[in-house]
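User: Hi! I'm working on a homework problem where we have to compare a predicted structure to a textbook description. Could you give me the structure for the chain below?
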Amino acid sequence: MQKTAYFLISIVLGAIVLREGDFLLVPMVWGIFFAFALTPISNWFEKRRFPRSLSIILSILLVSMIVFGVFYVLLGQMVGLIQDIPEISYSLETKFKVYLEEISLLLGREILNEATSGEVLNYFKPENLNTTLFATGKSLTLAGIIPLYIFLLMYYRDFFVEFLIRFSSRNKDKVLAWAVDSGKVIQLYLSGMIRVTGIVAVLAGLFFYVIDVKYFLLFAAFIAVMNLIPYVGVFISSFFGILYVFLTTDTMIYPLLTFGVLWGIQLLENNIITPLIVGSQVKVNALAVILAILLGGWLWGVSGMVLFIPLVGVLKITLERTPGLEAFGYLLSDDLPKSQSSGWSFLRIFNKRTQKNE
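Assistant: Happy to help. Predicted structure tokens:
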């Protein structure tokens, strides 16, 4: 009971620290994740007798070139979409008024007036995007420190290993095994999410290409990236995709078709693709994943929704190897008991115990 009490108190205090220190901890955790992901590339360069500092820089540059290459491909479509904003805004205003007038006639009362129309359309005016742009700029500035974290964490990785050995000299083998397994969880999760993102991008891109969406690559990439945020990303990405199709077509068939296909892709990804590719890597049950997403969103926002899934995997490994807390680690795992094969196993156990008591 004492260990359990300490464990629960640690969770509460840890949650407070995570929530209040997000400004420092979020880029640090992103740096740790990317450091684990880039370590194999850096090791490849070091085996060819490149200095460690140069190997790390080359690894970061290589990945950065790939990212900027994808961004460059999408840049032309982004510029084109920005240039089309005045035309899209006019189409939005026109269709908004037309459909509200039709709804007014259908309901037998007037629900459209200048105030209502103006209030709704104001959300799409450029001057009201200043707050969003400021927040985005702040996030980009904060993200700029992540490469520095990556370099330092990779450069001093032997230093951290030596720290773990000195910190736990009596149990150094267990601690080192924990560090290795935790690193594998993070690497496997990141590789799995990259594959999931690619699959979603291909599926969405093919659909938008078939229905002749002008900026199909941009919308496919947007949907794939937003898909990293389970459940919430579905609504955001689908909304903008459906809205664009609605404003650039003259029939309701295409928006409805877009809604059905995008929703189908999200269901396929959430229920089949991700559990098979990512869930099997992290080895955390679906309930724990959902709770991790909600808790991560509450503590760290969007970053928490993405980062907390592998962090729960690391927490599971830690609990499984801590004496007295193994049951909590099992609670997070996806290893079903053998009796799970029978749907009435719980009732049978309950009946047996009831009969014994009688």
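For your comparison, note the following. DSSP finds 16 helices and no strands in the chain. The chain has a mean pLDDT of 77. Good luck with the assignment!
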